[in-house]
Amino acid sequence: MKKLFLPFVAVLLASCSTVVQEAGYQVIPRPNNVTLTQEEPFKLDKHTLIGFPKGDEQMKRNADFLAGYVEEATGYRPYTREFTDSKLLVDAVILEIDPNVVGNEGYQLTVSSSNIFIKGATPAGVFYGIQTLRKSIPAVATDARISFPAVTITDAPRFAYRGAHFDISRHFFTPEEVKTYLDMMALHNMNTFHWHLSDDQGWRIEIKKYPLLTEIGSKRSGTVIGHNTGKYDDIPYGGFFTQEQIKDVVAYAAERYITVVPEIDMPGHMQAALAAYPHLGCTGGPYEVWRMWGISEEVLCAGNDSVLTFIDDVLTEIMEMFPSEYIHVGGDECPKVRWEKCPKCQARIKELGLKSDKQHTKEERLQSFVINHAEKFLNNHGRQIIGWDEILEGGVAPNATVMSWRGEAGGIEAAKMQHDVIMVPNDYFYFDYYQCRDKTKEPEAIGGYVPLSKVYSYNPMPEALTPEQHHYIKGVQANLWTEYIPTFAQAQYMLLPRWSALAEVQWTQQPQRDYTQFTTERLPRMIEFYKRNGWNYCDHSE
Length: 542
Ligand code: ACM
Ligand code: ZN
Fold this sequence. Notes:
Blueprint: H1 2-16, E1 20-22, E2 33-36, E3 42-44, E4 49-53, H2 57-74, E5 79-83, E6 92-97, E7 107-111, E8 115-120, H3 123-136, E9 145-148, E10 151-155, E11 161-167, H4 175-187, E12 192-196, E13 198-199, E14 202-203, H5 212-215, E15 219-220, E16 237-238, H6 243-255, E17 259-266, H7 271-276, H8 305-321, E18 326-330, H9 337-341, H10 343-352, H11 362-380, E19 384-388, E20 401-404, H12 409-416, E21 421-423, H13 426-429, H14 452-457, H15 467-470, E22 473-478, H16 488-495, H17 498-507, H18 515-533
Parallel strand pairs: 1-9, 4-5, 4-6, 6-8, 11-12, 11-22, 12-17, 17-18, 18-19, 19-20, 20-21, 21-22
Antiparallel strand pairs: 2-10, 3-9, 7-8, 7-10, 13-14, 15-16
Helix pairs in contact: 2-3, 4-6, 8-11
The protein binds acetamide (ACM) and zinc ion.
The site of acetamide (ACM) has 4 residues, from loops.
């Protein structure tokens, strides 16, 4: 009798002692429509099923993501099960495709006492509904039953392009770290990873036709200490992604509905490539992979036909690795001092009949020739280019999207010329800048001051543009340049929590945005996710 009785009491106690934790919809980015309804809450526990439509691989993956997210919070993993008729499921989270849901990435999340429905017109929309549900669960809810207040959430992003940029040239980050970056992006509903893969200080992607780009160009013999002090650490530094590793990252991103937009910065920021192939430069070298920071005067020679072949060859392999419609070709910070003296560049200027006038120098027009060449090549293969706002100087390539980084002036000018625009004004979205006024207490950064509140305050629709011109503003992005960011923990510190503010700029309609509510109601919940995931963050961004 005693033997039977004791386990019975233990089971009874265990079931009675199950903690209930309340879900809450104060998530980041703030959903655009949240309506609580007068029904009993839905209770999620380890018996809850996650249903997905039979035979739909993307929805199956979505279901697996949700099961994993619940497990991260609670420690138990709900079962996933395919269905042919969702009406037969009760006590389930049901993922469904519904063409009536508005927007490619929109979703409807409905919680009733019997079920939770997440519907989207596409699997991507369902994925964002899952993100909202996931963030409504307390980050740490070990073994708890989760009580979801009955609600209807109808939501879709304000911008189609919600970007985050990562420079892995100045400092190298591993495939695992890049995947964590993508996980962080998914939590913030971001969908475009702008991957800065080459620069003066290191070429970081394998190109099979030009093996020296990585054999030589990915390695520097040392790194300047501090802000170009003239002192070097003399520690060899390097790293690159093989094509297999790149494809693996692209697939990992795609599973999370993130498009990877690669950047091969040209014709400037090419000194590492010149170290590998000196004949591509105006002087013929020799060149070293740069050990200091700044803007190198050593750029691709625009008068050399083998440079155009090099661009085509590299872009061909880039297109093979990256299915993205958009390829970023840089175009920023290309000094013209070599071109002004180079006989080949001057011969090209003559051949093309380029002339200086009040608007542009002939060398600026020569830069447009290079970018136009890259655009034509990519357009012929069904791709489009993005370039930094310098591509406006010398005449913008006909179909280019302009990424406005020197404030928003370039973006305004481009939208007036009916070009698509991504807003990345440095005074709001350069997250390599300090986020606190007292710089002495911060890890050394490049300079500047972009506090959390300033990030949040940005409205990407400039008043200088008409409503029609606003249609050309396709999205918003933050950049992370890594001259002063040697570790991934420090990268996270610079991004978080500023990405939370960015996420609402990217996703939430302007009338729904409220900084006080953001900092008091939503950000503290998000910080719990950062903590639980072991992501470093700044706890005093101003
Ligand atoms: C840039 O920051 N040079 C685009
Ligand atoms: Zn030249």
